[in-house]
């Protein structure tokens, strides 16, 4: 049997005010075609089905449409929740989707381990693999912290519980496996995983990443959360599949793939995903940028999205008007215009007044700490608290 591993779809994402619906629809159609061409028997979606805990109705519709397409192809689907996913949203259709060969796991199965071990069968109805379907393990589902515990004690306690749960699920699968491979899933940061702008730490304040050595010896480990495809710990069979499309401009030039694991050969190959839309980040002087944009090939089906950074301290208003004129009637959309930090004069007060588009919330807070002349040790504590608040707000609808 061939098993396709994908993750981090982020259905319903609003990208600087722009919907990704058409890109996601094209990806799901491509996925169905790939399942047919590659004779895929099962798909594992390793977390972050949706971009927010309250996905728009069109995103839920697209998710269910994908389930129907895969079911028609007699392809089993395993979905585990990611840190962006709402447990209640995924659970609301869980029982219905089970009738369509789709298995959704949102929380750890501490008391009924076998409920989260999925049997994958081949066309002859024979057991081909067992999947320990492990979602993003939220700290509140894993540990109960005590008053006065230090940060390092909390990290250790959470790491021990994550290790214990993975071992429990592996042992359960091993008792059922015979000689078929055991596949694990996970939505977390493993040591050595390379993050991008659109990925933030998911165990903020407790555990930022987990050493691979803590996990049992899965034959294949299907990971999500890191958007760049890569192996973990030097093991080619423990992998992040990466997101199917660029979720931020710094991912625009990274290859996007799915992974296909062959249970007989016990080998994995990567299949490239087409870039359904071009995201381009351009930097330069006013005149250099205008020339670059004028020379762009805009014959693609979907409009090119541009992130423009001006290296000169100019008035952005007239420049944006010129950009609008240049892009009118072309398949190009400018989604962001900013000056470089140096040109914006963020901290020295020079140049034109910076805008909120020029700086991040963390930089605003850093500037406030400097202006108030907060002493270093207290500033460090305040920054940690502020970053926790920012991360908590990003989890909110």
TrEMBL record:
Calcineurin-like phosphoesterase domain: residues covered: 1-103
GO molecular function terms noted in the UniProt entry: 3'-5' exonuclease activity; endonuclease activity
Pfam families linked to this entry: Metallophos, SbcD_C
Keywords: DNA recombination, DNA replication, Endonuclease, Exonuclease, Hydrolase, Nuclease
CDD domains, A to Z: MPP_Mre11_N
Domain Nuclease SbcCD subunit D C-terminal, chain residue ranges per copy: 276-371
UniProt record, GO biological process: DNA recombination; DNA replication
Matches recorded under InterPro entries: Calcineurin-like_PHP, DNA_Repair-Maintenance_Comp, Metallo-depent_PP-like, Mre11_N, SbcD, SbcD_C
Family per record: Belongs to the SbcD family.
Function in brief: SbcCD cleaves DNA hairpin structures. These structures can inhibit DNA replication and are intermediates in certain DNA recombination reactions. The complex acts as a 3'->5' double strand exonuclease that can open hairpins. It also has a 5' single-strand endonuclease activity.
Subunit-level organization: Heterodimer of SbcC and SbcD.
This protein's name: Nuclease SbcCD subunit D
Organism lineage: Bacteria, Pseudomonadati, Pseudomonadota, Gammaproteobacteria, Oceanospirillales
């Amino acid at each position: 049997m061939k098993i396709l591993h994908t993750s981090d779809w982020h259905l319903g994402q609003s990208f600087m005010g722009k919907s990704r619906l058409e890109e996601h629809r094209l990806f799901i159609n491509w996925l169905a075609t790939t399942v047919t061409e590659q004779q895929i028997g099962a798909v594992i979606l390793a977390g972050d089905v949706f971009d927010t805990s309250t996905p728009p109705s069109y995103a839920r519709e697209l998710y269910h449409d994908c389930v129907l397409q895969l079911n028609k192809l007699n392809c089993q689907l395993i979905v585990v929740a990611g840190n962006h996913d709402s447990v209640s949203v995924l659970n609301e259709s869980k029982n219905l989707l089970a009738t369509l060969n789709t298995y959704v796991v949102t929380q750890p199965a501490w008391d009924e381990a076998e409920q989260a071990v999925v049997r994958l069968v081949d066309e002859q109805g024979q057991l081909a693999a067992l999947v320990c379907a492990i979602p993003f393990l939220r700290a509140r589902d894993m540990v109960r912290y005590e008053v006065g515990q230090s940060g390092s004690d909390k990290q250790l306690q959470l790491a021990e519980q994550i290790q214990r749960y993975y071992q429990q699920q592996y042992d359960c699968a091993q008792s059922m496996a015979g000689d078929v491979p055991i596949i694990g899933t996970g939505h977390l940061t493993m040591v050595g995983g390379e993050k991008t702008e659109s990925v933030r730490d998911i165990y903020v304040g407790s555990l930022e990443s987990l050493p691979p050595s803590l996990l049992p010896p899965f034959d294949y480990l299907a990971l999500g959360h890191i958007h760049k495809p890569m192996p973990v710990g030097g093991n080619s069979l423990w992998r992040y599949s990466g997101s199917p499309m660029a979720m931020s401009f710094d991912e625009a030039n990274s290859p996007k793939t799915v992974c296909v694991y062959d249970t007989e050969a016990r080998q994995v190959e990567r299949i490239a995903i087409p870039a359904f839309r071009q995201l381009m980040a351009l930097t330069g002087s006013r005149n250099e940028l205008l020339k670059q944009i004028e020379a762009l090939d805009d014959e693609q089906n979907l409009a090119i999205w541009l992130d423009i950074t001006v290296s000169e301290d100019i008035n952005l208003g007239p420049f944006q008007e010129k950009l609008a004129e240049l892009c009118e009637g072309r398949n190009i959309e400018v989604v962001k215009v900013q000056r470089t930090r140096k040109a914006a004069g963020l901290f020295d007060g020079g140049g034109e007044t910076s805008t909120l588009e020029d700086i991040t919330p963390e930089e605003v807070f850093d500037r406030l700490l400097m202006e108030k002349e907060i002493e270093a040790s207290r500033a460090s504590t305040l920054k940690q608290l502020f970053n926790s608040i920012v991360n908590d707000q990003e989890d909110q609808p």
